[in-house]
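Technical annex, item 7. During the second reporting period the consortium partners agreed on a shared format for inverse folding records so that results from different sites could be compared directly. Each record opens with the tokenized structure and is followed by the designed sequence. A conforming record, contributed by the partner at site C, is shown below for reference.
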């Protein structure tokens, strides 16, 4: 599985951005996709995730009500719609996917990262 991110950039407080993550390769094996973010000196944290099949989602408390994760299976693309952005949302955002092989081995894949900067 290969993941290519797009979107991100600089926005003012209260603004909106959309991140995209296009998956290619063995996308049929993907069971979970999500967005993590990381700031210098801190661990990468899960922002939002979405499961294949039922499409259940989960969010970090800090983004609930402001961010929305979605997935277009026909395009093999996942999105993160970010509204009401705050300076503390500034980070590098990484797309991730978990895929399970026929031998029931789970692999984790990462995108290249997209910088999101929110100015106050």
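Designed sequence (site C submission):
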């Amino acid at each position: 599985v290969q993941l290519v991110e797009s979107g991100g950039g600089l926005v003012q407080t209260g603004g909106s951005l959309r991140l995209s993550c296009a998956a290619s390769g063995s996308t049929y094996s993907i069971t979970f996709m999500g967005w993590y973010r990381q700031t210098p000196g801190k661990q990468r944290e899960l922002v939002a995730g979405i499961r294949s099949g039922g499409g259940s989602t989960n969010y970090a408390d800090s983004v609930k009500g402001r961010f929305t994760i979605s997935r277009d299976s026909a395009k093999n693309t996942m999105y993160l719609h970010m509204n009401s952005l705050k300076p503390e949302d500034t980070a590098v955002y990484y797309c991730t996917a978990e895929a399970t092989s026929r031998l029931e081995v789970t692999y984790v894949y990462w995108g290249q990262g997209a910088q999101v900067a929110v100015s106050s």
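The mean pLDDT is 96. DSSP finds no helices and eleven strands in the chain. All partners now use this format for quarterly exchanges.
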